Amino acid sequence: MDEITNRKNIIRMIGTDHSLASAEVRSAFSLPADVKEAVVSLARAKLGASGVVLLATCNRTELWASFDDVEPPARSIVGMGAPNPDDPMLRVMCEMHMVDPEEYAQYFVCRSGDKAVSHLFRVACGLRSAIVAEDQIVSQVKQAIAYSREIGVADSVLEVLFRQAVTAAKQVKSGVRFTRAYATAIDQAVELIGESGLDLKDATCMVIGNGEYGRLAATTLAERGAEVLVTVRQYTHGAVTVPRGCTGVPYADRYEYIDRCQVIMSATTSPHYTLERESFVECHEPGRELLLFDLAIPCDIDPEIGKLPGCHLRDIDSFSTQVGLENTQAIAAAQKLLDSGMEEFWDWLLRRQAHKSARPPFGAMFPLFFDISDKHAVFVGGGTIALRRVRTLLPFVGDITVYAPEFSPELERFAMDGAITLVPMKYEPKVLEGADLVFACTNDRDLNDEICDECRRRHILVNVCSDRFKCDFHFPGVVMKENMVVGVSAGGKDHRRVKQLRARIERLMDEEDV
User: Fold this and answer.
1) Which residues are known to be catalytic?
2) How many CB atoms lie within 10 A of CB 307?
3) Could you tell me the fold of the domain covering 3-180+327-352?
């Protein structure tokens, strides 16, 4: 496959952001949590993609797709530009959110290949954010790929791409200093509060929302000396974290606290308004000064409230910073780090393709004596045993994925060479989906047994390192020279003797030039 064509075809994305669409328009592309998994999975199926990732933040909504070893949609743009209403990526994006492609095409841009990769790296380090180099985006990029992995729609190309982008972003964050860098919308809101003449030490603030961004808002205000009320939904199961120095109040009673407050911030993922005009006017003294900050997409606060006397409403698009001449050198330094990370990604992809194409058409025969050159092997465990078996299996199997919280340095080197895929996560049964062979290689016997039982239910051949009697097949000592393969096994016993015999056979094959 031609390298340039492959770059443009293998990775594609479509997205809108704060520079292309208003907060009101972007609100149409916010998915409720209870339908997100089904919708994203359906998007992958409709595109025929190897993997998909949905990156959705206050500033942007982007759908990423990898077409590794599959043909991308023919009409999708190659390069970069505005999509036509019949573009497959646009149609899938709009179908996901139940809106008309004809109406929303003007707000989107498509990217592929180098342009797509460059965009993601710049997004991850905040160079495409409304607030330059803002601090939240890198974790949001990381969470996006983690979610796709969790629901089983990520592939190795997107895994490595997003991981490299996050790594490069962290290098930028630690090594490059921007003027006013790492400010969030909350920091800017605090600055606007000060400019209004209100001293937070004398203020009562209510934060609606107890998610990550809501807790950050509450903590920031409390650190500035404000009395902070945080809404808590009474139906929430389990422990609810109210930031230190803040007071929890029932979400259902939020209107009762309005005239006690000088500042209200709302940051939820609710598809409905958290403050509606009709209920608000019943509780708010006409003309009383109140600062309201809507930090959500879709919007939390009814825009009509901002038109009431004394009410000053800012939405998420009110917060931005200009790059400025003072940041020119910082951006140049950041770009060098990003370029290095992007080069590593493309090198990995090329090595991976070379590794695949180097195999014979039907592959060598593993000593189980059936062809596994087009099979998918899954390893659970990233230690010494997994390393030994991966090393032996590499010349025979088509695809190897290793799942573990941590990996040995040797496995990481195999991954950097494109020979295997590493997925940093604890075992869950869904990692077995699509596996032809499974190797349970953890140091937890109970976990290995659990993996074995699940493989039996799914009719997947399994090798259990901690119990030879539970193995569907034993892992032999292997000697291979050119197309000759010899396997030595003692039925899972007497490993020392197997090792000695394997060495003798290897010497014999060398001496006789088999």
Assistant:
1) 58
2) 10
3) Beta Polymerase; domain 2 (3.30.460)
